[in-house]
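Standup, Tuesday
Yesterday: got the pipeline producing structure tokens again.
Today: sanity-check two examples.
Blockers: none.

Example 1:
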Amino acid sequence: MSRHVVAHTDDIPEGGARQVEVKGRRIGVFKVNGEFFALLDKCPHEGASLCRGRLVGLAESDMPGEYSLSREGEMLRCPWHGWEFDIRSGQSYCDPANTKVKQFAVTVEDGATLAKGPYVAETFPVSIEQNYVVVEV
């Protein structure tokens, strides 16, 4: 698995998303309550961009006519047909047994750590022979 720097933490607003491309894949990176999540930016139902969807809460009900809202902002609603996916796992709430959005691991790292070397330039021995510069490769 390879790692890719895709955004600065301030580039993604709270409750928002950013579409990035990594190795030819469109990936949606979401920020919810200060945490970052990454899902394939393609609804498995009919291919809509999930980055254009809304982050909503989970509506739960014990009986008809009564419901409660929990996990505010942790459910991603597809913009085309309203299918909902758990932002933490990619699991579908419309078809949980068969449908899931591909999830990618996300970490937040300090820029100084990412830029830390050692960076070593490739060097070649050089010598001067009768006024000619010779580089050995």
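Example 2:
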Amino acid sequence: MKRLEQAGIDFIHFDVYDGSFVSDLGFAPRTIESLRPLSRLPFEVHLGVNDPERLIPALAEAGADRILSHIESMPLVYESLYKMKLSGVQLGLAFTLGTFIGKIDSLLGMIDSVLLLSRVTGEGTLGASFNPAVFDRIAYVDARRRDLNSKVEIQVAGSVRKEQIARLVSAGTDSIAFGGALYRATDMAAEVAEIRELALRQ
């Protein structure tokens, strides 16, 4: 946690998976709660679980500042978001690559952010390559938020490499969640600085 904070990142992104909706497993709410005192950075949670409403109160209590739930896991999305708002945290919707992005149109007024996955969700090395289909999806959400004068943040996550940053930002991306690209770096601070410079050139 200290290494991340000293590297100059803007937020810490946690994957919370249940082994069912997504075949992988992620951080438990109690782990996030234990880490919360160690950093002043915002905590955001990518919630890839069935019935996400049940975990919102625990994650909010654990110290999550923003929770991004999968639209695919909520049969009644509007109703679920309405209930989730009672938690007091910022809310976002996550979209897997195969989900029709037009579903966002009637929901932009209820959320703070949109997380667009650029690889197969939760599959580790299986299907882990970046999928360029995400560029058109970013552009679509960006156009819709402009039409509606919305301040919704667009985030991308999933095997993003430095050579894709310029195009991602040009398409409308506001933030990118990095995992292994940072942890594998010999000098994490230098890696963060280079990523930020590439983004700010656009």
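Quick observation on example 2: Residues 15 and 105 are 25 Å apart (CA to CA). The beta strands are 12-17, 43-48, 66-70, 90-95, 113-117, 153-157, 175-177.
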